[in-house]
Specification:
5% helix, 153 residues, 11 strands, six-stranded antiparallel beta sheet
C-alpha cells in the first residue's frame, strides 16, 4: 500500500488560463515555460514541465502537492478533471507559477535526487471559477488542484 511522504499546500496566481510546474533547474527543461504555452487540454506534459489549463483567466488557485512512495489511489471526491502523466525532474524540486506572473519564490520539494515521477492531477471548481470570471476577478480560492507524485525510477 502506498504511503504519503510529504504534503504541501501552495497558492498560485493563475493568469491567461494557465499554470505550470517544471523542474526548478530550468537548464534541464528544453522548452522552459512559458515558451510554447497555449491554453488547450487540461494537462499537457512536456519534457521537464507540466502545463495546466485552468477554468478561469485570472485568479488564485489552491494546489495540494503530495509525494508518495508508490502510486496512490486517486483522491476521494468529485473532480471535474483528472489526468495521469509523468515528469522527469533533474533537481528534485519543482517551480510553480502562472503564465505571465512568473514563478513562486520557493520550490516544491519532491526528492533530494533526480528522477522520473508519475503524476496524477485532479481539479474541482473549474466551472465555478469560469462563471465568477465572467463577472470579474474571482475572490478567494475557488479552483483547487491535487497533484500526486510517486517515483517511477
Amino acid at each position: 500500500m502506498a504511503e504519503m511522504i510529504t504534503c504541501a499546500e501552495v497558492l498560485v496566481e493563475v493568469d491567461f488560463y494557465g499554470l505550470y510546474l517544471q523542474d526548478w533547474d530550468d537548464s534541464q527543461v528544453p522548452v522552459p515555460f512559458p515558451e510554447g504555452w497555449e491554453a488547450g487540454p487540461f494537462l499537457r506534459a512536456r519534457r521537464g514541465r507540466l502545463d495546466i489549463t485552468s477554468g478561469g483567466h485570472t485568479h488564485t488557485a489552491g494546489l495540494t502537492v503530495q509525494v508518495w512512495d508508490a502510486e496512490p489511489s486517486a483522491p476521494a471526491g468529485d473532480w471535474e478533471e483528472a489526468a495521469l502523466s509523468e515528469i522527469s525532474v533533474a533537481s528534485g524540486q519543482l517551480e510553480v507559477g502562472g503564465v505571465a506572473g512568473g514563478s513562486m519564490p520557493e520550490p516544491v520539494q519532491l526528492s533530494d535526487r533526480a528522477g522520473v515521477w508519475g503524476v496524477r492531477v485532479v481539479c474541482r471548481g473549474r466551472a465555478e471559477v469560469a462563471e465568477q470570471a465572467r463577472r470579474g476577478v474571482p475572490e478567494g480560492v475557488v479552483e483547487r488542484y491535487v497533484f500526486q507524485f510517486w517515483p517511477r525510477s
